[in-house]
Amino acid sequence: YKFVKWTIDGEEASTDAEYTFTVTRNVNIQAIFEPLQYTVNVVVGENGTVTGDGIHNFGENATVTVTANEGYKFVGFENIEATEPTLTFMVTNDTTFTAMFKKILNVTASANVENAGTVTVSPEGEILEGDEVTAKATVNKGYNFVNWTVGDNEVSDNTEYTFNVTDNIALVANFEPIQYTVNVVVGENGTVTGDG
Fold first, then answer.
1. 3-state secondary structure of 194
2. How far apart (Å, rounded) are the C-alpha atoms in residues 78 and 64?
3. What are phi and psi of 90, to 5 degrees?
4. Is residue 182 a contact partner of residue 195, using CB atoms and an 8 Å limit?
5. Cα Dmax for the chain
6. CB within 8 A of 37, min separation 6: which ones?
7. In 10 A of CB 99, how many CB atoms?
8. β-pair type (132-139, 37-43)
9. Number of other CB atoms surrounding residue 51 within 10 Å
10. Beta bridge partners of 73
11. Cβ-contact 49, 66 below 8 angstroms
12. What is the number of other CB atoms lying within 10 angstroms of the CB of residue 142?
């Protein structure tokens, strides 16, 4: 708190903390104090918005709420153990919080040949920037797995591909049919077509 003024019978008498006066009658003297004010600052950058920050009185319970912008998710505050976007605390000094966000990403996987196999991506559901993702290809009978590609680039030749996501990505599992030789023996008494 800070001292504001002295009043005598409701009228301001002095703004000095120490006030000397001569008593000539019965008076009602009162010292007026007010709480110190502090700034609550929440840094959200370009990825979100915040309410409840600003100027607060000492001892007041302040509640700040962070809202992520579309395409982002709030994941916590730096240097404190808080994962919920709403934070309530008693104000005792100037305070700065930094909100952390992660980009929500889209990871898809498909097969280049229908019915050649199945593809899955785990974990299911929301995937955030930096998450570990595993794409898995299961080969159907009559086909071989070739590789995983993104665009024209090969990223793995293993049926199970694990990586950390940094951007939206569309994986393609490439399969090819197994080839067999058909041989027809006719000797010298005939001819054949369609073998090979």
1. coil
2. 15
3. -85, 130
4. yes
5. 145
6. 55, 56, 57, 58
7. 24
8. unpaired
9. 12
10. 102
11. yes
12. 11
C-beta of residue 67 within 8 angstroms of C-beta of residue 49 = yes
In tens digits, the chain (196 residues) has pLDDT values of: 888 888 888 888 888 888 888 888 888 999 888 889 999 999 999 999 999 999 999 999 999 999 999 999 999 999 888 889 999 999 999 999 999 999 999 999 999 999 999 999 999 889 999 999 999 999 999 999 999 999 999 999 999 999 999 999 999 999 999 988 878 777 777 777 776 6
Q: How far apart are CA 141 and CA 20, in angstroms?
A: 101
pTM here is 0.71
Which position has the token pair 């290809």? 137
Residues in Cβ contact with 53 at an 8 Å cutoff, skipping those fewer than 6 apart: 40, 41, 42, 64
Question: Where do we find the tokens 């990403």?
Answer: 105
Partners of residue 97 on adjacent β-strands:
42
Give the Cα separation of 30 and 34 in Å (integer): 13
In the numeric block, which tokens belong to residue 172?
């393609």
